[in-house]
Amino acid sequence: MPAFLVIDVGNTQTVFGLYEDGELAAHWRLSSSRYATPDELAWQLYGLFEQEGRNPKAIDGIMAASVVPRLDRTLTQACERICELTPAFVGGAEVKTGMALDYKNPREVGADRIVNAVAAREFFGSPVVVIDCGTATTFDIVSPEGRYAGGLILPGMEIGLTALHERAAKLPEVSFARADMMIGRDTATSMQVGSYWAAVESISGLIRRIRAMPGYEDVTIVATGGMVRVVAPDIRELDHVLPYLTLEGLRLLAERHFT
Q1: What's the order of all strands across the beta sheet hosting 128-133?
Q2: Is 76 strand, coil or helix?
Q3: Is the pTM here over 0.90, yes or no?
Q4: Which of 108, 113, 163, 171 has minimal CB crowding within 10 Å?
Q5: Which positions are annotated as active-site residues?
């Protein structure tokens, strides 16, 4: 089978996945620096292939989803230099996703959200909901008819803590982490406990509300994203936790596009 490089360009991190024979052979994360030059990104990309002992010129196609337009040209030039291939971008006219969008303005839907919806429908049928826990927490809903129905966007789990530190002079900078207790006994712990359980309960509550809608009573709930492993143990409503769902969706689209 062909080998594909898939790239998920997020606001905080860019995730690369190398697929060989339909399996994820390697994956890497880089910071999504908006000021990176093509030379810098090409050097990093070459190093990633080098450390895995892979030949970047053996790639048969590159599929990318980007929510940072400023990086698209940089990424394209780096891939052309190292892999001698031009990436195909989800959202571009040449990439057919097979997913009908019931959004007022389809161009507003992030490419990664479409990719998640495509992958979830392929693996679990419809209706299905994908919860992506990243810089933002997003819910993407595929209708019983298999169409992208829309979704919800919440502030990411770390954003609230950052805002508290920046807006309140006496509140320290703390990281988002799983909490085993309900009552914090110092300021930092109180912030962590509050932010953690607020995230858990907001996701759980929204799932219950979605399942209360006609046609969605038995909807499958899939969670993904960089923060999902932190909260998943306490969200009983989740049916599947797939940290690399976006990469899998990009693989599906690459197989359809390049073969």
Answers
A1: 148-155, 136-142, 128-133, 220-224, 240-241
A2: helix
A3: yes
A4: 108
A5: 112
